[in-house]
Amino acid sequence: MSSPLLAATGLVTQVGKAGLRAVDNVDIHLWAGEVLGIVGESGSGKTTLARTLLGQQQESAGEICLHQKRVSGVEPRRARAARRVIQYVHQDQAAALDPWWRIGNTLHETLRVSGVRNSDERKERIEQMLKAVGLHTGVLERYPHELSGGQIRRIGLARILSLRPEIVILDEPTAGLDLSVQANVLRLFKDMQAQFNLSYIMVSHDLSVVRLMCDRVAVMYLGKIVEVAPSQQLFESPAHPYTRSMLGAAPRVDPERQVQSSTLNGDPPSLMKTPDGCRFRTRCDHATDACSRHVPELETVSGEHSVACLRWRDLTSFNLTRSH
User: How many structural domains are present in the chain?
Assistant: First the structure.
């Protein structure tokens, strides 16, 4: 059996002076050619996890392997150098562009800093990537404020693709876009994945986008992965009460099917004072005394579907979906 392209084991990332565990003992992997979704509420740790995998944030414990070679355990600058094949498409692409620089200058500088000194090679790469994302070279003379939101997203992707990555992390890739532009951007991501043999990690709160784009989905809550499954299985048969609550609250594409969900009460607790035992128990309709005494570990439901819940067998003993 082949090995994952990227794998993390026992990953811990501490943030702030108090050393809060924004990522707490996470195991996760990405296969070549796969689109892996990471979902959860704000503060769940999904962006910190993505930044740690990228190398922008240093892990406190655990191991990260790329092409089966360890790339963790070094400070952020060296970590980024070791993980050049991983690139990050930020949520706010406009903020990543210098408003006083023409687009062409920004794209050339990106390649120059990455080590491409030859101007002709930079020009060739830039023109190739602009064509790939459906933009004319005329945009090179324009400033960021002269471009639409959709064009900015395309420029951001062209900038990243010019660095020839293998893995692209997409942070809320459709945030702030209207539905028609969203559809075009998602189609572009799919086309680029096929054309350049990319693997994606998609960080998003938009479950409809995740369901459309992702092969597998990992659900995070207060720094831990509580469920991971193939996308179709997760959306049709969620096993964790938190996952079921999120799906139950989300707009439904298919009105004939409804996930039986628990009520998602209040906001997540602070990382400064996480609950004993299961971190979700203070918001879970199904919590028992045992949930306060034991920290649930991920265990297999079936195949690639795993869940961290003491009561998942009880909760999945009946059909998780019902017809209206």
Answer: 1
Nearest to 223 by CA among 69, 110, 62: 62
Residue 293 within any structural domain of the chain: yes
The answer to whether residues 241 and 307 touch, using CB atoms and an 8 Å cutoff, is no
Q: Does any domain span residue 277?
A: yes
Residue 318 lies in a domain: yes
Report DSSP letters for 25-39, one per residue: EEEEEE-TT-EEEEE
From first to last of its 324 residues, the chain has per-residue pLDDT tens of 589 999 999 999 999 888 899 999 999 999 999 999 999 998 899 999 999 999 999 999 999 999 999 999 888 888 888 899 999 998 877 878 889 999 999 999 999 999 999 999 999 999 999 999 999 999 999 999 999 888 998 999 999 999 999 999 999 988 877 888 888 889 999 999 999 999 999 999 899 999 999 999 999 999 999 999 999 999 999 999 999 999 987 765 444 445 555 567 778 888 888 999 999 999 999 999 999 999 999 999 999 999 999 999 988 764 444 433
